[in-house]
Amino acid sequence: MWNIITPTGRVTGVLNVDMHGRISGIQEIHGKAEGWLLPGFIDLHIHGGGGKDLMEGGDALQTLTKAHARCGTTSLLATTVTASPESLASVLSDVRAFMDKPRSADTSRVLGVHLEGPFVNPDKLGAQPPESRVATREEIDYLLTLADIRLITLAAEFQENLNLIPYLCEKNIRVQQGHTLATYEQSLHAMRCGAKGFAHLYNAMSGIHHREPGALAAALAHAEYAEIIPDFEHVHSGALLAARRAIPKLYGVTDACSAMGMPDGEYKLGTHTIYKYPCMSATRLKDGNLAASTLSMDQALRNFLSLGMTPEEASARLSLYPAEFLGLDDRGRIEPGAWADYVILDKNFELLEVVIEGVPVTLTSHNEGEL
Fold first, then answer.
1. Which residues have C-beta within 8 Å of that of residue 46, sequence separation ≥ 6?
2. Are strands 282-284 and 290-293 parallel, antiparallel or unpaired?
3. pLDDT averaged over the chain?
4. SS in 3 state form for 310-360?
């Protein structure tokens, strides 16, 4: 018997699942719960995990989806970095091939692709490789033939990118701003054109000055959705709380790289070499600049809770809100008809069980070096 978090509130009882992997109902039972049953985590920003980087292609997606499934991520977007046209096409073809196969029981469901590059500002790359370019309809249409692209991060200060936002929205592709030096006015104009989100809020974007506000100011003033990395290295807890107060459906992502779940050492992020150091939840480039995260979603949950969020709120920011942003009405929630994607946690919110589409995941320790 568990404390079950549903879209309408907390229920004590057990979950019923049908033979097709869908939730058929919740049986309420009065009594003392043993722990928590929450919707499975939905991560819209994952580059790698378990030692593998998505841009390697081949079996990388199999490895990283297994690594994240063990941490409670039941579905995700495979996220690219800025790359050459040839490299990007190769990776998208590999994602398509992976999605066309029956899902292995121990892997997260891949919902599609998050194209984080290449349509970003070359002067705000962060840890992105130097392969940025402006968007063209020709390249977009070609990439759409290769894989199911669900989300694109772009820099709205380039007119070519801005012009394509309505077209992408017509294709039911979500657009968010990131790796950008847009002014407040440019960012707001992109939102009016259909860009609804912001990539890893605060990081790799023009910030706030009271006379020259940038993309961050536009997000805090106007956005309903934005993603944030709650590892307390990419974003200070105080800045996270400020964003939570301003953006109603702020949701968490890991922005995880190949070093997630692995020992300290040297790893890859696209063409970059990155380094994982002791006692850090993020990697760095050789010059010391911040790169991608090693965060897992179950730790993101505990980090949210440590800030004073209720389990209901923390859960929504890792499941319900990303599902809503992507337009999914059958994931990210515990209710009849939805996929039986859920996690079971003990009273201290440590992971006990992960179920994806009604099938339990075989859990082994996801401590560093044990994947």
1. 54, 64, 68, 73, 76, 77, 78, 79, 253, 254, 255, 256
2. antiparallel
3. 96
4. CHHHHHHHHHHHHHHHHCCCCCCCCCCCCECCEEEECCCCCEEEEEECCEE
What φ, ψ does residue 265 adopt, rounded to 5°? 155, -160
How do residues 196-221 score in pLDDT, each as one tens digit? 999 999 999 999 999 999 999 999 99
Q: What is the pLDDT of residues 176-202, one digit of tens each?
A: 999 999 999 999 999 999 999 999 999
List phi, psi (to 5°) of 326: -85, -5
Calculate mean pLDDT across residues 297-325. Answer: 98
Are 216 and 228 contacting, i.e. CB atoms less than 8 angstroms apart? no
Residues acting as catalytic residues = 255
Q: Is 311 exposed, middle or buried (0-12, 13-18, 19+ CB in 10 A)?
A: middle
The one-character DSSP state at 368 is T
DSSP 104: P
Distances (CA, A) of 112 to 220, 280, 345, 349: 28, 29, 27, 29
Q: How far is CA 152 from CA 44, 66, 84, 138, 204, in A?
A: 11, 24, 16, 15, 15
Structure tokens belonging to residue 329: 């009405």
> What is the CB neighbour count within 10 angstroms for residue 279?
5
